[in-house]
C-alpha cells in the first residue's frame, strides 16, 4: 500500500499564479497573462520606478483592485485544511495576492513579497497598505514608498529565502502547484527538495520546464487535483 498525503511529516507546498487563477486573478505568462498585456520593464523593476513612480503605483493599484474583488478558491482552502492536519506544513508562495492567508493558511512565506505592503527604502520600514493615505505613496519621512514586491532584477529578501530553503531542505513531500518554473531563484527550489529525497508532486494544467523533477504529475485545475490528492488513500494513483 502506498502513502497518502497524511503520512508525510514535513510538507512544502510551493505555489505560483495557477493556484489563484480559479479565483479570477490572471496568471503572468501565456495569452491574457499580465506580462502579455503589460511590459514588465515599464511596471515591475526598479528602473521603471525611478522613471515614473506614479505610473508604477497606478499599475499596482489596479492589480490590488482586481485581487480585492476576488476570494480564495477551493485550492487555497484545501491547503489551509492540510496545514490544520499536518502542522509541519509550509506554504512557499510566489504570489503577492495574500489569498493563502485569507483562506486560513498561517505558515506562509511570500517569496516575492506582497501587494498589500509598501516599503520605505530610506527608513527600511514596511507599511501596511491599509494604513497609508492613498494617492500620496510617500512615507512620513518624505521619501517615495515602493511596493514591497520582489521585482525583476531585485535581490531576494534574505530572511524569506533562508526560511524557505530550510523548510525545503527538510521536507519529505514537496508539491509544486500552478507555476511555470521559469523565474529564478524560485525555479530552483524544486531541485533542492529533490536533492533531499522528498517525494515530488507537480500540479499544473500542462507540462512545465520543471516537470522532469517531479515523480508524480497531476494535470488539471489546481482545486480539483488538490481535492483528489487530499482524499486519495495513496498518491501512487497519480499519473507519473
Ligand atoms: P506563470 O504565469 O508564469 O505560470 C502560471 C502557471 O500556472 C502555468 O504553468 C499554467 O499552466 C498554470 N496554471 C494556470 N491555471 C491553472 C490552474 N487552474 N490550475 C493549475 N495550474 C494552472 O506564473 P508563476 O509561475 O507564478 O513575479 O510566475 C512566477 C513569477 O513571475 C511571479 O511570481 C511573478 C512573475 O513575474 C512577481 O510578481 C514578482
Give the N-to-C terminal Cα separation: 17 Å
Main beta-sheet strand count, sense and barrel state: 6 strands, parallel
Strand order of the largest sheet: 3-2-1-7-8-9
**Total strand count, please?**
9
Map the helices and strands.
Elements: E1 11-15, H1 18-21, H2 34-37, H3 40-43, H4 46-51, H5 53-68, H6 74-85, E2 89-93, H7 99-103, E3 108-110, E4 113-120, E5 125-128, E6 145-149, H8 158-170, E7 173-177, H9 189-195, E8 199-204, E9 216-219, H10 222-231
Parallel strand pairs: 1-2, 1-7, 2-3, 7-8, 8-9
Antiparallel strand pairs: 4-5, 4-6
The structure holds 2'-O-acetyl adenosine-5-diphosphoribose.
Structure, briefly:
This protein is an alpha/beta fold and about 240 residues long.
List keywords for this structure.
240 residues, alpha/beta, Rossmann fold, SIR2/SIRT2 'Small Domain', 3-stranded antiparallel sheet, binds 2'-O-acetyl adenosine-5-diphosphoribose
Amino acid at each position: 500500500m502506498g502513502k497518502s498525503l497524511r503520512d508525510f511529516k514535513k510538507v512544502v507546498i510551493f505555489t505560483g499564479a495557477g493556484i489563484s487563477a480559479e479565483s479570477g486573478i490572471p496568471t503572468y505568462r501565456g495569452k491574457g497573462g499580465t506580462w502579455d498585456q503589460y511590459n514588465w520593464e515599464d511596471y515591475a523593476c526598479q528602473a521603471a520606478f525611478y522613471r515614473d513612480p506614479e505610473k508604477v503605483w497606478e499599475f499596482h493599484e489596479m492589480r490590488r483592485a482586481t485581487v480585492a474583488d476576488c476570494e480564495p478558491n477551493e485550492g487555497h482552502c484545501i491547503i489551509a485544511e492540510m496545514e490544520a492536519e499536518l502542522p509541519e506544513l509550509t506554504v512557499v508562495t510566489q504570489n503577492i495576492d495574500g489569498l493563502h492567508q485569507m483562506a486560513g493558511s498561517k505558515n506562509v512565506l511570500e517569496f516575492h513579497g506582497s501587494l498589500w505592503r509598501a516599503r520605505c527604502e530610506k527608513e527600511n520600514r514596511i507599511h501596511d497598505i491599509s494604513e497609508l493615505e492613498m494617492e500620496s505613496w510617500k512615507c512620513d519621512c518624505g521619501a517615495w514608498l515602493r511596493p514591497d514586491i520582489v521585482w525583476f532584477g531585485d535581490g531576494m529578501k534574505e530572511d524569506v529565502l533562508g526560511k524557505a530553503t530550510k523548510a525545503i531542505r527538510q521536507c519529505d513531500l514537496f508539491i509544486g502547484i500552478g507555476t511555470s518554473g521559469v523565474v529564478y531563484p524560485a525555479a530552483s527550489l524544486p531541485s533542492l527538495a529533490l536533492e533531499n529525497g522528498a517525494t515530488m508532486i507537480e500540479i499544473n494544467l500542462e507540462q512545465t520546464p520543471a516537470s522532469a523533477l517531479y515523480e508524480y504529475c497531476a494535470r488539471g485545475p489546481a482545486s480539483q487535483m488538490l481535492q483528489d490528492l487530499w482524499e486519495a488513500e495513496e498518491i501512487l494513483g497519480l499519473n507519473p
